[in-house]
Structure formats: C-alpha cells, structure tokens
C-alpha cells in the first residue's frame, strides 16, 4: 500500500514544463534574427548552414563541417578571421540540432573533448543513457501521468547532461549565429521553428524555454517517444495580422501563390485557440529532413521576418549592397543501408516497413529541397545578367563587381551553394580507407563507435575541401 501511495504521489506530480504566456508582443525583443548582436559578423558575407537529421551520424558530420569552417582563414573587409565567424544562420533538424544548439550556447566548447560536445554527446552512448532514464522505477511511476511522456524524460536528460539547463535567453545573449531549431507540428505535418517570431503567434515567450527541450522536440522520432507538447496561449494577446496574410486572404482562388497561401493558412491555424489549444511536436525531419525549408522561405519571399531578398536590396552606410556574397552549406547525413528484402518473396517485417515509411519520404523531400535551392540561385543569377559587362560573370564565382552600381533595384550578388553528404562520394572513391557504401550504411542511431565518429568528422572536412564551389569561395576570400 505504501508503494502504491508513493507511486500515485509521484505520478500526480509529474507534468511537462509549460511554455509561458506573453500578454504584450514586442517585435524588437526576444530570440529573433534582427534582435541578436552581430559582433564581428558582417552581413555582407552572409553564410547559412543547414544540418540534417540522422542521429549521431548527422551530429558528427555537422561537427566536421564546423571544424573545417573554424580552420578556414579568410580575409573579408580588410580583416583576417575564421569563416566560422561569418556564419549568420544555422537551421537544423533532429541529430543536427545537437551540434547547432551546442555551438550556439557554448561556442568553442563544441570542439573540446573534455567536458565539451565530444565528451557529452558524440562519444557517448546516448541510447543507453536514455534507456536508463526510461527504466528507472521513479521515472516509470512518473510516466503513468497523463501530462508527462517519454519525451519529457528525454528533454530532462538533454537539459541536465548536455545543455546545462540553458534557455533561449542564454542563447540570445551569445549573439549570432541565429539558430533555427526545427520540429514538426503533428496535426499540420508542417515545420515548427523555435524562434520568438513563431512563439509570437502563440502569444508565448521563448526566452525561459530550455534549449534542450527544443532539441528533444527536433529529434523526437515517432513511436520511440511521445509527442512534445506546447501550450497555445493565442487567446491571451492581440496579434497583428501581417500584411502578406491579409493579401493572401484576398486570393480566394488559391492560385496566385500556392506556397504562400499554404504558409498563411498554417500561421492562421495557430490563432484558432479553440481548435488548437495545444501543439504536439515530432521530429523535425518529418517535415524537412535537411533542415533548410525555413531559410528557403526566407530566400523566396519578403513575408518572413528573416527575408534575404529584402536584405540583398538594401545598402549599407558605405553605399554598397548590404549583402554581397551568399554562402549556403547543406550538410546532408542521408544514409542508404543495404536492402535485401527485394531478393526475397516473403514481405518485409513490421520494423523494416516502419523504418522505410519514416526515412524514404524524408530523403526524397530532401532531394527536392536541394533542387529548389539550386533553382533559386540560378534565377537570381539570371535576373542579374544585365548588371555585368559579360553576362557570364553572373554565373562565375567571385566575378569582378561592376564599377557603376545601379542606384536602385537589383544589386550584384556572388552565390555559393554547397552540399556535403555521403552520397557526394563518387563510385570507386575512398575517404580514410572507406568507400561510399561504408558511410551510407552507418546506422541512424544515437550511438556510434568512437572510430566511426572520428572518421565521419574527418570525412566532412575532406569532402568540403574537395568541393569545387568551396574551393572557389576560399580562393575568393584569401
């Protein structure tokens, strides 16, 4: 009876930590891109990183790219610095969110083995640690509560063991880069980004929200964990409807701009408090496994608070374009394990089917995202051909900037789209003694052997070094 009473008491006390309501909105404060201190970061060289999902494999690949950027010295605007110092935005999902969040909070500790990211995450058997939490008798009692799920236990572990209870207020105090940690809204099947602009719609403040909890949502693989719950406080404050949404509402035919219409309807759904008093979040990879859909919207319109076209067309105090070079590095940890079930007449097992349903559509969607980036950049180049004496210069990295810049309208722009991924390895090519199949077969889990982690990190830097576009960027910034 004592045990039963104790269990009931523990379970009754177990609740997820609620995000806090915000009664008055202030677009100049909170975790937003334009509210962060730029420090020594210049916007004229605008660098965006996107880290995909894929467990420890993805975190290690992202980590290797960060190491290479740290070690790449550049000269920009008369100053010698690391290319990592110029990163403006990091967008991430799932495994990539661990690397992004840790760097955002602790900077150079990302590269430390002792009491740093290597020790706390990459070299650690995270799966075993999570299992310990789940089978702990006290936690088993807590899990009987209807308002406390497995994902809440996971978030507690991340907050304590990896992210040191840091919040988005702590993250904002670090300044740039601006992090876009992405999860998926379960009911809408659309991305949910942990920024104050997203939380404004919910009439909630992001500042006291723990970063580890956002990473738990971003890496919340379905079935393994319960959805992570966010309170919608939309009835607590007045939210001014943006002009672009008002414009969308006039498009009753849904034909002028389907993508824009879809974004508007998603935003508006959060304002329907009666239908959506709670938001349930799953792994960000479900909506976007490469972690670039958020920045891509910023590339394609002026609707989002972070609008690259708006920044590109503005000028600095020196009269030159505010943004002169745009570098996008997509770190895609997609894997392709060996498939044997096509050789057998018997149907694949349940686990194989579930894994295929979860992974294959994500990978196909990621391919589409890369194609959209390439198309966007090509459209921008095409639109700027008339600015150069030789139209081909619009497509050439580090082309000479015309002496006579237009006083208004489009400005010259130097573009560098870069993809780092295991499927970039050519057939017959090897990195660190392993071929493409070895890297593509690494498991999607939260544990790898130390040697595997180190090889993935080294591979990321080596592949980036061998990428023609990155070579051209380094040469331009020498």
Explain the overall architecture.
This protein is of the alpha/beta class and 478 residues long. The chain is 41% helix and 13% strand. It is built from 18 helices and twelve strands. The chain has helices at 2-13, 55-71, 95-106, 117-122, 126-135, 137-142, 150-162, 168-173, 196-201, 211-218, 243-249, 258-270, 293-300, 308-312, 350-383, 436-440, 450-466, 468-476, and strands spanning 45-51, 73-76, 79-82, 87-93, 178-185, 190-193, 228-231, 278-282, 325-332, 414-421, 430-431, 434-435. A hairpin with a 2-residue loop joins β11 (430-431) and β12 (434-435). α3 (95-106) packs antiparallel against α10 and α5 (126-135) crosses α7. The protein is globular and about 70 Å long. Mean pLDDT is 90; it is low at 3-10.
Helix and strand arrangement:
Elements: H1 2-13, E1 45-51, H2 55-71, E2 73-76, E3 79-82, E4 87-93, H3 95-106, H4 117-122, H5 126-135, H6 137-142, H7 150-162, H8 168-173, E5 178-185, E6 190-193, H9 196-201, H10 211-218, E7 228-231, H11 243-249, H12 258-270, E8 278-282, H13 293-300, H14 308-312, E9 325-332, H15 350-383, E10 414-421, E11 430-431, E12 434-435, H16 436-440, H17 450-466, H18 468-476
Parallel strand pairs: 1-4, 1-9, 4-5, 9-10
Antiparallel strand pairs: 2-3, 5-6, 5-8, 7-8, 11-12
Helix pairs in contact: 2-3, 2-17, 3-10, 5-7, 7-10, 13-15
């Amino acid at each position: 009876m004592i045990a039963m009473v104790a269990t009931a008491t523990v379970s009754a006390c177990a609740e997820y930590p609620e995000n806090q309501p915000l009664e008055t909105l202030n677009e100049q404060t909170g975790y937003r891109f334009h509210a962060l201190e730029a420090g020594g970061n210049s916007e004229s060289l605008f660098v965006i990183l996107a880290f995909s999902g894929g467990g420890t494999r993805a975190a290690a690949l992202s980590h290797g790219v960060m190491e290479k950027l740290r070690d790449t010295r550049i000269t920009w605007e008369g100053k010698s610095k690391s290319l990592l110092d110029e990163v403006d935005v990091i967008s991430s999902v799932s495994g990539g969110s661990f690397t992004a969040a840790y760097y955002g909070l602790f900077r150079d500790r990302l590269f430390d083995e002792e009491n740093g990211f290597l020790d706390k995450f990459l070299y650690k058997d995270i799966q075993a640690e999570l299992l310990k939490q789940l089978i702990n008798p006290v936690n088993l009692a807590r899990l009987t509560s209807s308002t406390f799920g497995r994902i809440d236990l996971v978030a507690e572990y991340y907050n304590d063991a990896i992210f040191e209870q840091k919040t988005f207020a702590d993250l904002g105090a670090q300044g740039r880069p601006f992090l876009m940690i992405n999860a998926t809204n379960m009911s809408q099947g659309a991305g949910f980004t942990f920024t104050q602009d997203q939380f404004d719609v919910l009439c909630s403040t992001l500042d006291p929200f723990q970063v580890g909890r956002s990473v738990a949502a971003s890496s919340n693989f379905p079935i393994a964990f319960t959805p992570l719950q966010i309170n919608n406080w939309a009835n607590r404050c007045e939210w001014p409807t943006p002009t672009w949404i008002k414009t969308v509402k006039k498009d009753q035919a849904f034909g002028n701009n389907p993508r824009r219409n879809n974004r508007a309807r998603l935003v508006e759904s959060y304002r329907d408090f009666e239908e959506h008093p709670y938001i349930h979040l799953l792994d960000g990879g479900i909506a976007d496994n490469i972690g670039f859909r958020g920045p891509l919207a910023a590339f394609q319109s002026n609707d989002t608070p972070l609008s690259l076209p708006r920044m590109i067309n503005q000028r600095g105090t020196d009269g030159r374009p505010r943004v002169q070079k745009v570098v996008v590095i997509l770190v895609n940890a997609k894997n392709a394990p060996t498939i044997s079930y096509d050789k057998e007449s018997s149907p694949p097992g349940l686990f194989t089917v579930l894994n295929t349903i979860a992974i294959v559509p994500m990978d196909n969607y990621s391919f589409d995202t890369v194609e959209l980036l390439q198309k966007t950049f090509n459209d921008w180049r095409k639109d700027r051909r008339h600015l150069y004496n030789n139209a081909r210069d619009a497509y050439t990295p580090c082309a000479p900037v015309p002496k006579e810049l237009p006083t208004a309208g489009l400005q010259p722009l130097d573009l560098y789209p870069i993809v780092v991924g295991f499927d970039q390895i050519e057939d017959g090519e090897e990195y660190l003694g392993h071929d493409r199949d070895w890297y593509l077969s690494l498991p999607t889990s939260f544990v790898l052997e130390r040697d595997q982690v180190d090889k993935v990190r080294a591979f990321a830097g080596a592949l980036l070094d061998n990428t023609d576009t990155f070579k051209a960027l380094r040469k331009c910034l020498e």
